[in-house]
Amino acid sequence: MGKLIDGKAFANRLCETLAEEVASLKSEKQLTPCIAVVLVGEDPASATYVGAKVKRCEQLGIDSRSHHLDVTTSEEELLSLIDSLNNDPAVHGILVQLPVPKQINSEAVINAISPDKDVDGFHISNVGAMAVGQNNMVPCTPLGSMMLLEDELGDLSGLNAVVVGRSNIVGKPMATLLLQKSCTVTVAHSRTKDLPAVCRGADILVAAVGIPHFVKADWIKEGATVIDVGINRIQDPETGKNRLVGDVDFDAAKDVAGAITPVPGGVGPMTIACLMYNTVAAAKKLSGIA
Ligand SMILES: Nc1nc(=O)c2c([nH]1)NC[C@@H]1CN(c3ccc(C(=O)N[C@@H](CCC(=O)O)C(=O)O)cc3)C=[N+]21
């Protein structure tokens, strides 16, 4: 069986380092990093994620401000809140939990956030900056996935990386970061011809499609490193209970892969740890601290 990549332990270590940095920013620079988390509506999964983010903030000594808006909130009202958070010097990071209700255009909302407070890294100017190698705020899930890959493999230069999925929040930025590390990058998606064969060429396989158990064991090259970005809630056919599974058929894949991230306990905790990392970085940058 391949090695399990313990994202939860890595995230805990990263957060311990960040907690020390926050403590010294407070005592030496009188700076307390602060993130505003905006949740619109009552989606239970979203509420759980927001809760996890706020809890991590508390552990690290980062201030968090939760804004919970009604599901009927208009785009104008949300934009007005973002404007006030942009102009609040005590707020360093702004995160609007996605998805937002259908009357709100998520693109308009994302691009209304000040790029230097955009701790998700979704603002069009942060996306463009990354495309030309001038990384500012890097999206949390790809950033966390890269940390795990470099910890596992060291130098990624020349490796064949296949990213399955082309979303703006994971697939595309992940491909950009892998290219920055001199991987030979293929972005595969629902129209890709012979996807199993494309995946079999991967030294690094990143699954980010949002379909439970989509990537099969016989798509994986022996010894490959597999990063499973999927967070899918399914009903277990045997126990009838709800459980969390990734985009990779983990039980079979773990015997073929050289190393693989589990779900839960893989990329998910890294996403939240990297949100903390981006918040500390934003606080320092906005305060003129290197
Ligand atoms: N603006 C915005 N930014 C986001 O970063 C964002 C978002 N919207 N909308 C929803 C997704 C989802 N997401 C997760 C983060 C951590 C876990 C996580 O820590 N998962 C745990 C398990 C949690 C559980 O048991 O439910 C794990 O994989 O081990 C999951 C999902 C961030 N998202």
UniProtKB/TrEMBL annotation:
Job of this protein = Catalyzes the oxidation of 5,10-methylenetetrahydrofolate to 5,10-methenyltetrahydrofolate and then the hydrolysis of 5,10-methenyltetrahydrofolate to 10-formyltetrahydrofolate.
TM ranges: none
Q: How does it assemble?
A: Homodimer.
Matching HAMAP family, A to Z?
THF_DHG_CYH (MF_01576)
Look up the EC number in the record and give it: 1.5.1.5, 3.5.4.9
- What is the protein's name according to its record? Bifunctional protein FolD
Q: Which organism is it from?
A: Leucothrix arctica
Keywords annotated in UniProt: Amino-acid biosynthesis, Histidine biosynthesis, Hydrolase, Methionine biosynthesis, Multifunctional enzyme, NADP, One-carbon metabolism, Oxidoreductase, Purine biosynthesis
InterPro entries given in the database record: Aminoacid_DH-like_N_sf, NAD(P)-bd_dom_sf, THF_DH/CycHdrlase, THF_DH/CycHdrlase_cat_dom, THF_DH/CycHdrlase_CS, THF_DH/CycHdrlase_NAD-bd_dom
Start and end of every Tetrahydrofolate dehydrogenase/cyclohydrolase catalytic domain? 5-120
Keyword Amino-acid biosynthesis applies: yes
Q: In which pathway does it act?
A: One-carbon metabolism; tetrahydrofolate interconversion
Provide one Gene Ontology biological process annotation. tetrahydrofolate interconversion
Instruction: Provide the Tetrahydrofolate dehydrogenase/cyclohydrolase NAD(P)-binding domain boundaries.
Output: 139-285
What domain of life does the UniProt record list for this protein's source?
Bacteria
Q: Where does NADP(+) bind?
A: 165-167, 231
| GO annotations of cellular component type | cytosol
- Which protein family is it in? Belongs to the tetrahydrofolate dehydrogenase/cyclohydrolase family.
